[in-house]
Amino acid sequence: MKSLIAPFVVAFIISLVLTPIAIKLAPKLGFMDIPKDKRRVHKKAMPLAGGVAMYLATIISILYFLEVDRKIVGLLLGATIIVISGLIDDRKGLSPKMKIVFQLLAGISLIAGGVRISFFTNPFSFGNTIIYLAFLSIPVTLFWIVGITNTVNLIDGLDGLAAGVSMICAISLMTIAYKFGYGDIAVIAAILAGACFGFLPFNFNPAKIFMGDTGALFLGFVLSYISVEGVMKSAAALTIFVPVLILGVPVFDTAFAMVRRKLSGKSMVQADKGHLHHRLLDLGLSQRQTVLVLYIISIIFGILANLVSDFNSKVGLVISILIVAAILLIGVMTGMFRSKEE
């Protein structure tokens, strides 16, 4: 684990140094978030270039600590495509369809580099039979990458929320990747966590800068890569449930939002104020308290995922199903599937 400290620290320092520069350059380059609707929590214009600082911190650290192979090239190319789309969206705006096009291109770059979900373990069988996806591998991989990329973007609604939750998820993924012998993936996770940590002093409430879609989409994209290469490649782990648990806060909040919007007759991509952080604010919690509560929940998810990964598949499956069922029950009881207007 000592070998992971240096990548974390280097990425942290680079992000810590570059973020103040981004704060100064953002207004000059026109990257400002100006609140235009009631859904926004902040009330004044804010710099939006924080994602670039985390992107550069991550890319520079990866190039320094790891040998460049096909998968790394695919990751760097895909991350760059995502960041370009985020910059365009933060500066001028992109339609949902164009965002998906960019995300698919980024996903294809990963697949071209050899990154894909090619199999999963069948926990119902004796001996943990491996089920190979064959021709379904590419669409399943693209679905996962695009899905996780967008979940982080959807929780980016409060100061420090997306960066902090992404950092916790990266650390949880890092521990599992390291445990199963995926050292390079653990290094990338440590680097991403360090980049988030270096950004947080300027993004935690009261924030001096936002990460924008550039940062949120970038974090989601790299987390999707780490989850595929560091967790789903392990036949010993419950390849679907473990990463879902680790990414529980953004994944379940997004799932609740999509079902909620569908049931209320709205488009599933239409923004609303029904996210978990909005509901915690409505209960009277401050921004800081809400973010800290979600940090704690994310940590609990990470601990549960690490525990589940140590069980045999059948025991892990039962525990995972019970956890998911409990989350869905809590979602129903707290009204997460109902719009706030109902």
From TrEMBL:
Can you supply one Gene Ontology CC term for this chain's record? Answer: plasma membrane
A single Gene Ontology MF term assigned here is: metal ion binding
Major site of localization recorded for this protein? membrane
Q: Which InterPro entries match?
A: Glycosyl_transferase_4, PNAcMuramoyl-5peptid_Trfase_CS
Please provide the record's keywords in A-Z order.
Cell membrane, Magnesium, Membrane, Metal-binding, Transferase, Transmembrane, Transmembrane helix
Q: Which organism is it from?
A: Anaerosphaera multitolerans
Which CDD domains does this one have? GT_WecA_like
Residue ranges spanning the membrane: these are 6-26, 47-66, 100-120, 126-146, 158-178, 184-202, 209-228, 234-259, 291-309, 315-337
State the protein's name: Undecaprenyl/decaprenyl-phosphate alpha-N-acetylglucosaminyl 1-phosphate transferase
Origin superkingdom? Bacteria
Does the record's keyword annotation contain Transferase? Answer: yes
Q: Where on this chain does Mg(2+) bind?
A: N153, D213
Q: Which PANTHER family match?
A: PHOSPHO-N-ACETYLMURAMOYL-PENTAPEPTIDE-TRANSFERASE, UNDECAPRENYL-PHOSPHATE ALPHA-N-ACETYLGLUCOSAMINYL 1-PHOSPHATE TRANSFERASE
Q: How does it sit in the membrane?
A: Multi-pass membrane protein
